Target: Transcriptional regulator CtsR
Amino acid sequence: MQGQNISDIIEEYLKRILADTHQIEIKRSEIAQLFNCVPSQINYVINTRFTIQNGYIVRSKRGGGGYIRIAKVNLVSDADVLDELIAVIGDDINSAQAFQIIQSLFEDGVLTRKEANLVLAAMDQRTLAFEDKRIENTVRARILISILNRLKYDD
Amino acid sequence: MQGQNISDIIEEYLKRILADTHQIEIKRSEIAQLFNCVPSQINYVINTRFTIQNGYIVRSKRGGGGYIRIAKVNLVSDADVLDELIAVIGDDINSAQAFQIIQSLFEDGVLTRKEANLVLAAMDQRTLAFEDKRIENTVRARILISILNRLKYDD
DNA sequence: ATAATAATAGTCAACATTAGTCAAAAAGTT
DNA sequence: AACTTTTTGACTAATGTTGACTATTATTAT
Model:
């Protein structure tokens, strides 16, 4: 019952395919035409919904026969991906990005739903609301990295 | 029977729908138009009448296709106990006290071992690492309260 | 080989479309 | 009168859409 905008619809379309195949290769202009939007909207969808935080790796090629390839990756089982993720987090991370990472961990089965919800509660915007936004994002990054480390070494 | 002000009427309208469906998704401007009030009045109604204390959680999205989603949640049986804990915590709590609370919740079976460890990782001294101890304890209190609030309902 | 041309995808900023915040004004209560 | 709650609207923030311009790669012509 959600998703009245084109971006959500394109996202859903791509993820439905990815549920089966783990990887897809598209032509930007074809997808744009299919959904009756400008080609750059495909970039917007990819940049907001198919990031490494979401558990996706995207590669593309321009020129004749160009393509955009989207692959679903498993976050914690793949050490390289995890390192990349930690690098992306760096010293600060906002609420939306943290949410995406936790959701990815849930989808990969690393966290149960309840575990994910508790972690999200700890990092929520309202929870960490500081005078200074930068401090909020810094603390969130520290919490998230602490959680990821905890998950690495397991109980 | 409530008073006749607009806020009460909007509240009643939304809660009547929620009695059937468990969750609704509205467009702020549409509801405002329906009741002939300014959009921000919808925020007022939500903030005063659809809080977690009342058993509701609210999520929203801005931009094209934006929405406000209100869900009725089932409060768990020990929700009032959690409320008491929240009252005791107040504005700040140190690391040791927080540990004791989490341990109690583990012993009572409210949290699994893994859940408890994740929560502790989020609130750990090294994780929060503030220069000012008072600020650290304030942040820890906010995190712990947020988690306790989350524990008041399932999924 | 090299240069020109065609065929792709990427970037960025302006504009559009929502919801959120905050504080003053108005209305209601005690 | 003093205090609380509700109403209002100007301003802010977040998200989505569009198109002109740029960058890269492949193909074709010289």
Notes: Residues 79-153 of chain B form a domain with the Non-ribosomal Peptide Synthetase Peptidyl Carrier Protein; Chain A fold (CATH 1.10.1200.150). Residues 133-151 of chain B form the longest helix (19 residues). The helical segments of chain B are 6-21, 28-34, 40-49, 79-89, 95-107, 113-123, 125-128, 133-151. The interface with chain A takes residues 25, 63-65, 67, 69, 113-115, 117-119, 121-124, 126-129, 139, 142-143, 146-147, 149-151, 154-155 of chain B (CB under 8 Å).
